[in-house]
Amino acid sequence: MESEQLYHRGYCRNSYNSIASASSDEELLDGAGIIMDFHTTEDDNLLDGDAASPGSNYAMSNGGGAASSTTHLLDFLEEPIPGVGTYDDFHTIDWVREKCKDRERHRKINSKKKESAWEFTKSLYDAWSGWLVVTLTGLASGALAGLIDIAADWMNDLKEGVCLSAMWFNHEQCCWTSNETTFAERDKCPQWKSWAELILGQAEGPGSYIMNYFMYIYWALSFALLAVCLVKVFAPYACGSGIPEIKTILSGFIIRGYLGKWTLMIKTITLVLAVASGLSLGKEGPLVHVACCCGNIFSYLFPKYSKNEAKKREVLSAASAAGVSVAFGAPIGGVLFSLEEVSYYFPLKTLWRSFFAALVAAFVLRSINPFGNSRLVLFYVEYHTPWYLFELIPFILLGVFGGLWGAFFIRANIAWCRRRKSTRFGKYPVLEVILVAAITAVVAFPNPYTRQNTSELIKELFTDCGPLESSQLCQYRSQMNGSTAYTDDPNQPAEPGVYSAMWQLCLALIFKIIMTIFTFGLKVPSGLFIPSMAIGAIAGRIVGIAMEQLAYYHHDWFLFKEWCEVGADCITPGLYAMVGAAACLGGVTRMTVSLVVIVFELTGGLEYIVPLMAAVMTSKWVGDAFGREGIYEAHIRLNGYPFLDAKEEFTHTTLARDVMRPRSSDPPLAVLTQDDLTVEELQGVINETSYNGFPVIVSKESQRLVGFALRRDITIAIENARRKQEGIMLNSRVYFTQHAPTLPADSPRPLKLRSILDMSPFTVTDHTPMEIVVDIFRKLGLRQCLVTHNGRLLGIITKKDILRHMAQMANQDPESIMFN
Fold this sequence. Notes:
Distance between the termini: 33 Å
Number of strands: 11
Radius of gyration: 32 Å
CATH architecture of the largest domain: Orthogonal Bundle
Helix content: 40-55%
GO molecular function, one term: ATP binding
Keywords: Antiport, ATP-binding, CBS domain, Cell membrane, Chloride, Endosome, Glycoprotein, Ion transport, Lysosome, Membrane, Nucleotide-binding, Repeat, Transmembrane, Transmembrane helix, Transport
Protein name: Chloride channel protein
Subcellular location: Cell membrane; Early endosome membrane; Late endosome membrane; Lysosome membrane
CATH class of the largest domain: Mainly Alpha
Mean pLDDT: 82
CATH topology of the largest domain: Clc chloride channel
CATH superfamily of the largest domain: Clc chloride channel
Strand order of the largest sheet: 3-5-6
Structural class: mainly alpha
Strand content: 5-15%
Transmembrane segments: 128-148, 216-238, 258-279, 286-303, 315-339, 388-410, 430-449, 501-522, 534-555, 575-600
């Protein structure tokens, strides 16, 4: 890794041993790898003057007495002080410094492990802590996913009725033990009562339909209202999918509370309510957020991760893999999703731990068996018929549809979310949720394909028809298979129920497309995977039925003649639904490898990888033709998070001097000198500016760079010195050098801040192409980079400067995209 190479070349930051062993400032600067011109005699004197007398005496006068003590300057920062090296909310971590801190900790443990049995035990605990934390994360993720699945199924059925024998049973579980069910009406049993039967005492008729309609809307609005109120009052961060924010956090951004215990608790509860309300959303994306909350909470049990933000993000990468594993029952797909879609830094060690976390989470969910089918997902299917070469044409057409849908959805949803942010409508999130939930419930109830749970809809669309299926979609299939339920003649045409189902599916497709645009982004937990898959599955099933009927009526066409015999079963509509679901999800998220593996794990069939790959790649190409951003990157940009997407290419020919600050019209760069400031002057610079850090130079005249000091570290160091040291006053001199010169006897005690100084800030020359600068920021996760000319400081480039510049190059308003 780049940071390891930089470390061995002397770039490690805040290394107390290297600072202490250096004999002069010039040696420290050279050791840090900073290339400067040291031919000026004046600057050499400035740098080496304090090192000429390493044993300089510091005389102090106490209470007006003449007695003086010959003591060395007290450096209270020889030991790291609490708070130094930490980060404020909505700031970016320093990846290189965090990795160096971890190596220092690792060396310290290795050097002590042979001293005693206790130290050896501590080293073993440290080595195994990574596996322990991902194990706990996997256990918690699997348990919470099982709880969410069971509760969501029960509450979804609560909208239609209740089980009198056991209220905690959903509709399917209620009829399991009944001896009065028939095959044709397997979902009807005396134990399950609809609301019309309970309230009116009748199961059929207009009055019964209206009562069930009313109760459906009542429960949908109740669940949606409770969900949005819980989110608004207790955990505002629990809304949305969570994946855009997790991508940003994994890139190094700090959002305190986003992965906290309150967010976890409220997200778990409100996710059940939101799914049960019938809104066009899914629970798969929020499950990644839930798993990352578990990983974040458990990481605080282990100092190795709680005290190092970079190491903590390795746990979060593994947690996101566990989240997808329990969402789709796809452990390998979860690991690839973490690698391809959300992770910013993914070393090999994290790959192994992500795999293990996904394994543990899937094992726990399988043990709970929330769907009662011994599977990890509700819509697990297996196909027993092969696909034929001519079917690649409709598969690719489904990929084109998925790409067009993805591009349309991203533009429409972002436009609506931007309007929500910029108008008064966004100030009433509760009203918006109630309004969308009411429209969804009113329109969804009359259509059986929109009334049922979206996961159950996908299951029905994926399922290969056979004699055991009683769905309207399978009436023609039962005839063609010679099912005794209809007729023994396989040449009969499809029943009218199939055409009725096709019309209902077309209406459901339009409904899902419109409502998903307005639902994603509401102030409730809302995932996008399931709605996108449902839209693709509906389109795919329609195409599959059309292809099957075409093959049935025109089996003598050259396309079907070679593969389809009269009455043969050569087209599988469920496979088309699966390919369409993958294409639409790929068009929205622009995932490729991980998506194919996830869908492959759903079906358990190797032979369908080629159709999936063809459809997913086609959807990505078509979507990229309208814009390279997926929905998560678009929401990151909409919210103004400081995220540099590694997939986005920088093709402009600008230089570092074109981007750095200060510009010609800006005030001079705020800098600190290494030995000319007092505490009062230093505090004045901090109070008068809002910058997060300051370059430290030799003198105002030379502008020779010494290092970089963070605002937060300076403030904490000054407060800590005043608490622990006597004699620190406003006129105390502040030193960033290794040694302090001799001071007059009546001078107050000086304050030495050498140890909080970053002695190896990354620097580029003013002629460095911005293409290289952007690449450095992406690969090393930098917060800022200093710009020099012939070794003298010119300016600074931060991550936000780069984002502003990229927006400006794309003809966007630079300030409109920044995080507020």
